[in-house]
Design brief:
Layout lengths: L2 H12 L17 H60 L9 H13 L1 E11 L5 E9 L4 E7 L2 E2 L2 E6 L3 E9 L3 E10 L2 E10 L5 E12 L2 E12 L1
């Protein structure tokens, strides 16, 4: 038998000699169990990532709330300072009562710049005549009605009705040095009472009361303050 015949029989029996040493490689996760393990691991990792995100949401919300309220608080502090300054400027004019227009102009400006609600009372007491005038300004974004009453005063009180962004001036005469003030007003069926006092001596005196609120993105800050000056 020749060599070619022997080789031919070897190929028929054993296949191609070139493939005789080859082995099929099976990846470690090619089986069904391995694939399930990999899928499970992926879902666990995704779950941890989502859980971390969910846990951080309240922290992010609290941080945003803090930033928003801090921003409003800073603005409120600045606005309050501007009102004190306006009252100071008004008190230094020759006609302090008429100069309360400074506060009116400031309130008009604040309405344009902020979502604000403001009510103010500006009192000028003349040390020579003991007469005092009271300016009430309504910038509360709604109409309001009320009364303002005084101890040791003639008359003892007056009623007022104010549309939004308007003022009224009322005149009184004091019969004692210390005059207590009670401001009562109704705004959208809510009744509010404010109390403070001023000095009606033989010297000129200015007393101002400010109730200022700022609103933004659902947040609300409010400040009540007074300013006074004697000369």
């Amino acid at each position: 038998m020749d060599v070619d015949a022997i080789l031919s029989k070897g190929v028929e029996k054993h296949g191609n000699f070139r493939d005789a040493g080859r082995h099929t490689y099976t990846p470690p996760f090619s089986s069904g169990k391995g694939q399930m393990f990999m899928i499970g691991a992926i879902f666990i990792i995704i779950g941890f990532v989502l859980l971390k995100g969910l846990l951080s949401l309240p922290i992010l919300a609290q941080e945003k709330t803090f930033q928003d309220t801090s921003y409003l608080d800073r603005n409120l502090k600045n606005v309050r300072g501007e009102y004190d300054y306006a009252a100071s400027v008004a008190s230094m004019q020759s006609d302090a009562n008429a100069s309360s227009v400074y506060i009116y102009n400031l309130s008009t400006y604040m309405r344009r710049e902020f979502d604000s609600k403001i009510i103010y009372v500006f009192i000028f007491s003349n040390g020579t005549t003991r007469n005092f005038s009271v300016t009430i300004g309504n910038f509360m974004q709604n109409n309001l009605s009320g009364t303002i009453n005084f101890t040791n005063s003639t008359p003892a009180g007056r009623a007022f009705v104010l549309n939004d962004s308007t003022t009224t001036v009322l005149e009184f005469n004091a019969s004692a040095v210390i005059v207590n003030v009670t401001l009562n007003y109704t705004l959208q069926n809510n009744q509010v009472a404010e109390k403070f006092y001023f000095n009606s001596s033989t010297r000129n005196y200015v007393e101002a009361f400010f109730d200022i609120s700022l609103l933004e993105s659902g947040f609300f800050v409010r400040s009540k303050s007074t300013y006074n000056r004697t000369w």
